[in-house]
From TrEMBL, chains A, B:
<dbReference type="InterPro" id="IPR016169">
    <property type="entry name" value="FAD-bd_PCMH_sub2"/>
</dbReference>
<dbReference type="Pfam" id="PF01565">
    <property type="entry name" value="FAD_binding_4"/>
</dbReference>
<keyword id="KW-0274">FAD</keyword>
<keyword id="KW-0560">Oxidoreductase</keyword>
<dbReference type="InterPro" id="IPR016171">
    <property type="entry name" value="Vanillyl_alc_oxidase_C-sub2"/>
</dbReference>
<dbReference type="InterPro" id="IPR016166">
    <property type="entry name" value="FAD-bd_PCMH"/>
</dbReference>
<dbReference type="InterPro" id="IPR036318">
    <property type="entry name" value="FAD-bd_PCMH-like_sf"/>
</dbReference>
<dbReference type="Pfam" id="PF02913">
    <property type="entry name" value="FAD-oxidase_C"/>
</dbReference>
<dbReference type="InterPro" id="IPR016164">
    <property type="entry name" value="FAD-linked_Oxase-like_C"/>
</dbReference>
<dbReference type="InterPro" id="IPR051914">
    <property type="entry name" value="FAD-linked_OxidoTrans_Type4"/>
</dbReference>
<dbReference type="GO" id="GO:0071949">
    <property type="term" value="F:FAD binding"/>
</dbReference>
<dbReference type="InterPro" id="IPR006094">
    <property type="entry name" value="Oxid_FAD_bind_N"/>
</dbReference>
<protein>
    <submittedName>
        <fullName>FAD-binding oxidoreductase</fullName>
    </submittedName>
</protein>
<dbReference type="GO" id="GO:0016491">
    <property type="term" value="F:oxidoreductase activity"/>
</dbReference>
<keyword id="KW-0285">Flavoprotein</keyword>
<comment type="similarity">
    <text>Belongs to the FAD-binding oxidoreductase/transferase type 4 family.</text>
</comment>
<dbReference type="InterPro" id="IPR004113">
    <property type="entry name" value="FAD-bd_oxidored_4_C"/>
</dbReference>
Length: 454, 454
């Protein structure tokens, strides 16, 4: 192995291959902090597509597993190293080119989402997808997981903005798919197939992203409810009439955690909170009125509206900051289950039951307009029994979502943490088809083995 | 073969299998009217998914090709029969169920697009995708080609509204993919892979479609230009500021054909026309002003705005009716090429050159906001030389689009008419990957052989 690694190091730019064990340690896990992550033999940090091709050709020749890695902010263990693998980090691939005429950005995978947004904003353009990890997650990782966020309810997910890509296959072939074309149905939808494929089909080395005109500042509505069902009814009523730019949910525990953390003056006795925004030019006032009246009709105990962007941003920050707020309380297991919107009350109630039965603390925030929820399980990792109960709750929540016609992951990905529940959701026939496609593209199974598929 | 067909007939509902040659004749071609279409041995009209499974199991056993067919309104020969095949028409599969709570429609493939829209409208909901064939094309065919339309520039294409499907694979296995979930990243993006796959990977037997709240009536702007470049500049300027609900282009020949056909009072000397709409609630007046001022800034010779829906509908009808208007003038070869928007003037000029060189009449209409154009070649099919020149022009336009970084098909599909140009656009490596996926899903090659791939 040593000789083979030396050969690879010779083929790559100076310093691109790292075998120092202290540095390697930092590349073993993503933000799920999975204790079962393996140890790679090396980390490579390619400077461009040609380097990625070299790595994969080498890996194919030596039958070495390659674990692609963006910023390591993933929450499902999708970038956890495998023993004996090479971790391929895209962190050095940071070029970006904005074309205002086609309203596209051509970006390498290593930039953060915020960096892409900022470059687009310099041309009065906007890249909408906004996972909460916006400042730390890489655009390549966003594409590999089809990341969502808060604005999806109106503006869609990462995949809706990817017009084309360059991707390197398991044998080192680099393909160009799509481009700055808004409509293109020539051949199979291969670009779409690589989106959300979590590194098991290829390594994305460039993305062509669709940009749209920047939106005006949003108006914000906050509503409190004394029942989750009332809040869920308000979600259904509002989305039947308008498309809000944000429609977030926080449960009783989350409201209190946010209040502990940020002192917003929220009613600590409330059972549910909705945080909504409208950015419709010329229609924000009308949309705010629609949100307010539907919340009131559905029994909100308190409704507050503002078109001060700073005030709105404070509420949004409280919502985005939830993981940080509860992180202080213990280790986290972050859920990402989704259900059809009418099942939201059943999911929230079911999660409360699981918290009781498993004797764990669960905080629930949700992209309610999409039915995508994040029950956050907080536990003490030094207590083996508490860890076990947390893991049991993690499993039960997925089973609950599947039973409600939902999904085990709305935007974080399957990775390694949720892999064993995927067959329960998809069924044997869909798993078999998935395996057929994986085998067709990566017959040696060297690309991110153990992620998504066993 | 006769005995085998009898066995299949026995397995299907009465009358589902047709061998009458007069009836079969009507199922040989789609609307491309390809003279090279083959003759099937039978037409089957399944009543549901179980019947489709029977047909495919039977076909796999007897190595018989199956050509899936929606309404036969395709324009690329994607539903052209193959000699000895069975044509599988979905026309009898017409169930629809609207769920206002999840804002979804669960539909069988045989309904027309308009029928889906109408059912959604009964609940105050809207299914946006609107190919010009809206009244005659099937929703299953729309999904199989990832059909576009006029509203795509703001609202996206068919695939953006497909949340889930039931699909029958080549071996008769029926799979359920996705469902009424707005965000779901569990496993590979298989739903997306079947969208636009033109019947070569499976037969779609049910779709779960995302619906959105109905939009208010649109305001309309019509602008005339004495140069194509000026019109294209206006497109770039407008789309940098707002997202119009429609942004259509007609060239000099099309303006005159529309005027012959409908007497709108258009200036026959104009070289280009833009037809634009805004449906933004509360912001239509502002968007109309943006469109008008940008057209004027870019040198429009005449600009007309109206918020009378009837007047707007008359212009839209003139645009939608273009195929009908020129159909009287001869046989048509319909192009569907797309380019990055800044290449629009080069494409229009290039097409004019091709019309001159090949001595054919070409009318150009375009979904300009998407860069997706429809040069319509009109020729006399009884004149072999004219037919030959038309076919040469058809090929040259695709080569022109590829040379401009564009696509041979923006929304109609590759089918059989454009198949031989697909490798020129995609390249050998992408074709090889396409073939690997096709072979993984349909190892016998019985699903729509000759479409997309040779």
């Amino acid at each position: 192995m040593h000789a083979a690694l030396n050969r690879l190091a010779d083929e790559l730019p100076d310093g691109a291959l790292i075998t120092d064990s202290d540095i390697i340690e930092r590349y073993r896990r993503d933000s799920a902090a999975d204790p079962h992550a393996g140890t790679p033999v090396a980390v490579v940090r390619p400077a461009g597509t040609a380097d990625v091709q070299q790595v994969l050709r080498w890996a194919a020749e030596h039958h070495v597993a390659v674990v692609p890695r963006g910023a390591g902010s993933g929450l499902s263990g999708g970038a956890d190293a495998v023993d004996g693998s090479v971790v391929l980090s895209t962190e050095r691939m940071r070029d970006i080119r904005i074309d205002p005429a086609t309203r596209t950005a051509v970006v390498q995978p290593g930039l953060t989402n915020t960096e892409v947004k900022r470059a687009a904003a310099q041309h009065g353009l906007w890249y909408p997808p906004d996972p909460s990890s916006i400042d730390i997650s890489s655009i390549g990782g966003n594409a590999a997981t089809n990341a969502g966020g808060l604005c999806c309810v109106k503006y869609g997910v990462t995949g809706d903005y990817v017009l084309g890509m360059e991707v390197v296959l398991a044998d080192g072939t680099a393909l160009r798919l799509g481009g700055p074309l808004l409509k293109d149905v020539a051949g199979l939808a291969l670009t779409k197939l690589f989106i959300g494929s979590e590194g098991i089909l290829g390594v994305i080395t460039e993305l062509t992203l669709r940009l749209i005109p920047a939106q005006p500042p949003a108006s914000t509505v906050v509503a409190l409810f004394d029942s989750v069902a009332d809040a869920a009814n308000a979600v259904v009523a509002i989305t039947a009439e308008i498309r809000p730019a944000m429609l977030e949910f926080m449960d009783h525990a989350s409201i209190n955690a946010a209040e502990d953390h940020m002192r917003m003056g929220l009613d600590r006795s409330a059972r549910a909170m909705l945080l909504m925004q409208s950015d419709a030019p010329g229609a924000a006032a009308a949309e705010v009125a629609t949100m307010v009246s539907n919340c009131e009709k559905c029994g909100a105990t308190e409704v507050f509206a503002t078109d001060d962007p700073a005030e709105g941003a404070a509420f949004t920050a409280a919502r985005r900051g939830m993981f940080g707020a509860v992180e202080k309380l213990g280790s986290l297991l972050l859920e990402d289950v989704g259900v059809p919107i009418p099942q939201l009350p059943a999911l929230v109630t079911g999660v409360e039951d699981i918290a009781d039965t498993c004797d764990v603390q669960i905080y629930m925030v949700a992209h309610a307009g999409d039915g995508n929820t994040h029950p956050i399980i907080v536990y003490d990792p030094t207590d083996p029994d508490a860890t076990d109960r947390a893991e049991r709750a993690f499993a039960r929540i997925m089973e609950l979502a599947i039973g409600l016609g939902g999904t085990i992951t709305g935007e974080h990905g399957v990775g390694r943490l949720k892999r064993d529940w995927l067959p329960n959701q998809l069924g044997d026939d869909v798993m078999a088809l998935t395996r057929r496609i994986k085998d067709a593209l990566d017959p040696q199974g060297i690309l991110n083995p153990g992620a998504v598929l066993r």
